[in-house]
Specification:
alpha/beta; 6-stranded antiparallel beta sheet; 5-stranded mixed β-barrel; 11 helices; 31 strands; about 20% helix
Length: about 500
Amino acid sequence: MTTVIPVILCGGSGARLWPLSRSGFPKQFLVLSGDDSTASLFQQALERLNSIGSPKIKLGKTLVVTNEEHRFLVLDQLRELPSVDATLLLEPVGRNTAPALTLASFCAYEIGKTDQTDPILVITPADQTIKNSKAFTKALQECIAVVEADQNSKTIVILGITPNTPETGYGYIKKCGIKGPHGEFTVEQFIEKPDSKTAKAYLDDSHYFWNGGMFVLRVSTWLAALKIHNKNIFGVSEAAWVARSVDHVGAVEFIRPDKEIFKTIQSESIDYAVIEKCPGSEFSIKMVELDVGWSDLGAWDAVWQVGKKDGQGNVTSGDTLLSNTNNSLVHASSRLVGTVGIENLVIIETADAVLVADRASSQDVKEIVHQLEQKKREEKNFHRKVARPWGWYDSVDEGERFKVKRIQVKPGASLSLQMHHHRAEHWIVVKGTAEITNGDQLILLTENQSTYIPQGQTHRLANPGKTPLEIIEVQSGGYLGEDDIVRFADHYGR
C-alpha cells in the first residue's frame, strides 16, 4: 500500500484581508470560514487532509511548508489538534509555491526510502474554505486512485472547481474527453485570468473550471517534471535541502533548508513552473471535478459571500449594532461598531486600524497595504497584540518617553535573557507567578507585587507555574523601539 502524505502550503500574507490579516499574522491563521467553527483556515486544512485515510489509503505524517517567522504560530495551532502529526519545513524567505512543493518532495522522498515506496502527495493551500468536507474527501480519494492506477508515474491530478460566478480573479482549466473510471477528465488547456466577457462565456460552458491550486501526484513525478521544465528550482532547492539543519520543539520536527542557498531560488508558482507546461508532454494532467462550496477568501467580498447572513444580508462578527444596514460585512475586534443607513460596505475594526471599503472594491485593499509599506508603518506587519513563542504582548498605550504593555507568558515558558540600552522597565504582576532574573538577583513575584529593571540591566521573565502569567510592563526612556534588545540566551533560536 502506497503512503499518502498530506502537504499544506502555509505561506502568503493575505494582504487583501488587511487589517485583520497582516504579514506577522496572515489570513491562514484566522477564523474566517463563515460557519460556527472556531478553527482557523490552517487548522481546517489540516483536518480535511487528515480525514482522507481509509483501508486503502495509508496516511503519512503531514508536511507543513511555512515561513520561518510563522513557525510558532503553526506550532501553537498544531497543539490544538493533538490527532495531527506534522513536520514543519521552514522557508527562510518566500519563493512562491514551486520551491515550497519541491522542499516537501525532497522530504517525502526521504520518507519513501525508509519504506521503499514512492509516496503520493496531496497538496493544498492553507487558506481556503470548503463547505462540504465529505465531498472534498471523496474527490481527493478519487484523485489518489487515478495516480495509483498509473504504473509509469507520469500522471498529475488537479482538482477543478465548478464555477458559480464569472470570476476574473482565477485561472481556468479546460477539460476534454470522456470521464474516466475514477471521475477524471483529461486537461486540454490552462487559461490565464480572463476578462469579464470571457469569464461569462466560461460559466456557460461546462468544460471550464477554476484552478484552486490543489494537486495529487507522486513524489517522483513532481521531481522528474521539475527537472525537465525548471532546472533552476530543482537544482537550487536540492542544494538547499542537502545543506539543511534540523531541530525539534517537543515532538514536532523543524527542518530548515540552507538560507543563503534558498534565497537564490527562482520564485515561481507550481502552475507556471511545471503544470501548465505538461499538457501534450510525457506527463499527463487529469482533472477531478470539485463542487463543494469552495472559496479562497481572496478578498473581503469573498468573506461576505461565505458568511452567515441575517435577514438584511449582513454578515457580522464581534460587538456590532446595525440599523438600516444591508448586504454589508461588519467585523468588530476590540470595541462596539455601529452602522446606520449603509449598504454593500466592508467595515473591519481592530485595536489599531479601521478599514471602510465598498464591497465591490475589496480587492483593492492591497493598495492600502502598499501605502503602509511605503511609509514603513508597523500596521502592515503586526497587530497591536503580537504573538510570540512564549505568549503575547499588547501595546495598550504609549506617549513621549513611555510605553505600556500587557504581557502574557505561557505556563513553563520564558522570555530571552536580555538587556536594553535605552530604556528602563517596571513590571507589575496581575495574574500568576513570575520568576524574574534582575541582574544578579533571582526573585519570585505574585499578584500585586512589582520590580524595577534599570536601563542596561540584564533580565529575564519566566512563568514557573501551571497557569498563564500576566504582567503590566511600563517602559520609560529616550528610545522604546522593539529593536533595542540584546539577547544573551534564548530558548527559541532568535
